[in-house]
Design a protein that fits this description.
By secondary structure, the chain is α+β, with helices and mostly antiparallel strands. The chain has 2 helices and 5 strands. The strands form 2 sheets. It has a 3-stranded antiparallel beta sheet with strand order 3-5-4, with no helix packed on it. A two-stranded parallel ribbon has the order 1-2. β4 and β5 form a beta hairpin.
Length: 120
């Protein structure tokens, strides 16, 4: 829903895409699947099926849930040079404490900064 609200076509038409949501979501391509089941089981299936890491784009609620289940081993955080004043917490719902180390930084002319962290 968030991606589509930008007024663009679905950006992943040729990629196998799983949408993890408790809401009804319109499926955009035949490579898009809606997931409602146990997240930990599903993530482990994907990793086993692909034999490699998976890339997750999501909001704080999803990421907090994945942190609590020990499913995140690397994170890319993008800092945007805009101060909102108020907003949604980055990691809501009190995720468990998890230690990460900074492994890469990348700054852009726009002022955006990517920070890549790996779980210790």
């Amino acid at each position: 829903e968030e991606v589509l609200s930008f007024g663009v076509e679905w950006p992943y038409p040729d990629c196998k895409t799983y949408i993890i949501s408790s809401n009804k979501v319109e499926i955009r391509t035949e490579n898009t699947y809606l997931v409602h089941e146990n997240l930990e089981t599903k993530v482990n299936e994907w990793i086993h099926e692909n034999g490699k890491d998976i890339w997750v784009v999501g909001g704080g609620v999803l990421i907090s849930s994945m942190l609590n289940q020990g499913l995140i081993d690397e994170m890319l955080l993008t800092i945007t040079p805009v101060i909102l004043g108020e907003g949604i917490p980055l990691f809501p719902n009190s995720p468990k404490e998890t230690n990460f180390e900074l492994i890469k930084t990348e700054a852009f002319k726009t002022g955006f900064v990517n920070l890549t962290y790996r779980k210790v």
